[in-house]
Specification:
By secondary structure, this protein is an alpha+beta fold. The chain folds into 2 domains: 105 residues, Beta Polymerase, domain 2; 123 residues. Helix content is 63%, strand content 11%. It is built from 11 helices and 4 strands. The protein has a 4-stranded mixed beta sheet with strand order 3-2-1-4. The longest helix has 26 residues. The chain starts with a helix and ends with a helix.
Length: 243
């Protein structure tokens, strides 16, 4: 898989346990996100999707301890989905699943995303929801913990995945896709021609690498991050008006 040895070993152990637990009801196991790109950072989770024919209680119970162990060892997060739910999820969570569609690796079984696409209309609907929800949550985080800079750093780091996925979706709709979600966000920010927003991206990369921000920087960075989200929301509104 090209990942650090501890992570690869834990994933392999979990995959074997899932195959034993679910047997013939296991359709696919898919690694997605930064792990699929072999680009895990210090703050990165390991994300896995299991596609099932049915969700059986006894089978699920058999995977409880392997999942608990993998989550504790490498922050492995597992999503369990029935194969009939895949197209529904692609529509309901278009931004997330568009990202998974472009960044995934099949570890077992068939590719559940082969021949699947996400419509521009679904992406636009979900983009509006994702960005608005993120904006609302960040306002609450700022007021609650703006004097706790170490906690704000984690908030800034956690904002990266949805922001990058949203940027990739925006460029996809524009017909100008980027090679990765990170590059997509960098491209959009460069177009804003605002040094403070570029500083936000640098700070985000910094904290995702496990390093703290300079003392006093986190509150202003979070405020600029919220301003960046406003810019992305304006892009989405323009795309919606174009349609």
């Amino acid at each position: 898989m090209g990942l650090p040895e501890t992570i690869e070993r834990t994933i392999t152990t979990f995959v074997d346990a899932a195959k034993q637990a679910f047997g013939a009801d296991l359709v696919s196991i898919v690694l997605f996100g930064s792990g699929a790109e072999q680009n895990l950072r210090a703050t990165s989770d390991v994300n896995i999707l299991l596609v099932l024919k049915r969700f059986d209680q006894a089978q699920a119970d058999a995977l409880r301890e392997p999942l608990r162990f993998a989550h504790a060892a490498i922050e492995l997060n597992a999503m369990f989905m029935l194969e009939t739910e895949v197209p529904l999820a692609m529509e309901a969570f278009a931004v997330k699943f568009s990202d998974i569609l472009h960044r995934h690796r099949v570890l077992h079984g068939s590719d559940p995303f082969a021949g699947v696409t996400v419509s521009d209309a679904a992406l636009l609907r979900r983009l509006k929801q994702v960005l608005l929800n993120l904006q609302i949550r960040l306002r609450e985080r700022y007021i609650l913990i703006s004097l706790r800079e170490e906690q704000l750093g984690r908030v800034i780091a956690d904002a990266a995945p949805p922001l990058r996925a949203s940027a990739a979706s925006i460029l996809q709709i524009e017909g100008n896709p980027a090679p990765s979600p990170k590059k997509a966000l960098e491209r959009l920010v460069a177009g804003f021609n605002d040094p403070a927003l570029t500083d936000v991206l640098n700070a985000m990369t910094h904290v995702r690498g496990g390093d703290p921000l300079e003392p006093g920087d986190a509150p202003e960075t979070l405020m600029d991050l919220m301003r960046l989200i406003e810019k992305l929301r304006e892009n989405v509104e323009r795309l919606e008006g174009r349609g």
